[in-house]
Design goal:
Elements: H1 5-31, H2 35-61, H3 73-88, H4 93-115, H5 122-148
Length: 149
């Protein structure tokens, strides 16, 4: 089954979101004081990289040009804002957690948009549903941490 241009654009956007998530978690990891949170953020950065690569590989397997592994300018702005907020709040862990929740909620929305498209190939639906479940679990866990702060 060939993919239409709208779906291809959506998949390219998921790659960008994954890369931005990876870079966001890496930036957040630099700013936290808790070693447990550092490890959790490093794991999440790796997870976002794996998700982006899985979508890139799926596209390549469909005979499409593999999109570049790069984020967007808006992701750079979000990380700069995280840095400013972190500096103003003495690099509080809750600022980093909140920023990661915001980024992951945007990723959840993007994944949900793609999963809502008609005639999504079953293998792609399975892949993206798995990514979505992981994102939702991460947000839930981060929100629990935030409630404890």
């Amino acid at each position: 089954m060939s993919l239409d241009q709208k779906l291809i654009g959506s998949l390219e956007h998921l790659v960008v979101i994954g890369v931005d998530g990876e870079e966001g978690y890496t930036k957040a990891a630099e700013m936290v004081s808790s070693k447990d949170l550092l490890a959790q953020f490093e794991q999440a950065a790796t997870s976002r990289n794996i998700q982006a690569e899985a979508v890139r590989n799926y596209m390549s397997d469909q005979g499409l040009k593999k999109p570049e592994h790069k984020g967007e300018f808006s992701g750079v702005l979000h990380r700069a804002w995280l840095d400013i907020k972190g500096t103003l709040s003495n690099r509080s862990d809750s600022v980093s957690i909140s920023s990661c929740v915001t980024g992951d909620k945007a990723a959840i929305d993007a994944y949900q948009d793609v999963l809502n498209e008609k005639d999504l190939p079953a293998d792609l639906q399975k892949l993206l549903s798995s990514h979505l479940a992981d994102l939702k679990t991460d947000v839930k866990n981060l929100e629990l941490l935030l409630a404890d702060k």
